[in-house]
Amino acid sequence: MNIEKIRSDFKILRDSDVVYLDNAATSLTPDSVLLSMNRFYEEINANPGRSVHTLASTARILYDDAHRSVASFIGADKDGEVIFTKNATEAINLVASGIRWRDGDRIITTAIEHHSNFLPWLRLKQRYGVKIDIICPDTSGQFNLSEFKEIINDKTRLLAFSHASNVLGSITPAKKLVSIARDRKVLTLIDGAQFVPHRAVDVKELGCDFYAFSAHKMLGPMGMGALYVSPNEKDNLSPLILGGGEVKDAGLDFFELLPSWEGFEGGTQNVPGGLGFASAIEYIEKTGFDEIVKHEEKLTKLLIQGLCRFDKIETYGPGLGEDRTGIVSFNIHGVNPHRVSSLYNEWGNILIRSGHMCAYPLMKNIIKRPRGVVRASTYLYNTEDEVNRFLEVTEKIMKFTLK
Amino acid sequence: MRETFNYRDKSITLYCINLCSYGDSGDYELFPDEDMGILLIDQVKNLDDIGCSVVDVNESVGFLHLRGMEITLYPSGRMIIENVKPDDRLVAIETARNIFQALR
Ligand SMILES: Cc1ncc(COP(=O)(O)O)c(C=O)c1O
Asked: Model pTM?
């Protein structure tokens, strides 16, 4: 992997000496993605599928191609198994509001979830009395799978879990969990927001019913996400919103939705966003996950080893050598996370995140750090030099705050 | 949210952003629209005069304590105010304005 070449594709990296280690919040956007979106406005700019003219038809074909690229990227069937959404949050909410819940239904989720994969279930509890069963992992994010088996009962309708934690960097054994759920005829939703940007996914191999993720964490534009829906569940799910572009037929007292993704995407869509999403995927595919994984593993190891040298730093998540993504969360003993992250920014132009990371249940119940953590997260364009600069500034912060 | 105030005969706009916080207290980031060029080391006495204790300071950062709030102040005027009670942006803005007005 040619890091210098990769870095030259990102204007922010070309034009400044910023060390961007906030990739779990959002990733940077390469020129090719920006170009594809700009080109849409400059050369096409028509509403797909609404008008019979050449630009509208071109827009329709490109937008359909974008769905096909995203679908094939996660191993889904290219025809209609992937619906575009605003982000992973909307994709999960689509499932929460689109399933016809029955009296007494139960949902299993976990205590490491991002609020996007937690609050929608809590709302179902408040609104419809759906019962929520919550499985807690150990402090490093590892689950005891037998707890899932034991808690499933005849009323369990859905198992919803994240493929990778946005705080711990831990990876959930998704295939095993799906298999446990399927054996008991329980639906599965996987929140892949922190996994898809970093590892190859094959939804058919996983066997899940729903898979949600966002474009902006994988070099794509903000305001774009996707939901995979298995063919078995397609007809059981209602769209989040209804309106133009979705119907095959409608009358004074009925409507019939189009098959495929069209039946789920009401109103004028973010077409340039869809093209940008496809372009981001092209960029990742060109680089290759084998290379990306190797590179991130190297940086993550360097980060963790460097932080572990300081005995006043507490890191979270799986230990060195265990499978994990490039997210490294930590705290400096006795120093508030926001203070720490602002010091990285001021003293090293290093951009990271601090706080509860939209994961209060995890902060309060698993790692028991209600004020949150500081989080550095790597991606394909980060370098060992950047990690070393991060560690140098860490040393400076430690010296000043703990003297 | 933003507020404009006078600092050394100049009008400065202060922006205030909520940071994720916990329980009944709030954390905020505040920053002025221009670099205020504060010489932090020279301000210890002035801050002390308004009851703001300077826990630690060097030329690039000051750690302050004021009525239970933990404040991180940078020479540009950027500030992180943590543990604001009640959790209200107006309280954070008022705190920042008081600190700026204490600087000489
Ligand atoms: C694990 C996880 N799930 C869901 C989300 C929500 O993503 P978005 O804000 O793009 O909807 C995030 C965002 O950080 C996340 O980390």
From this structure: 0.96
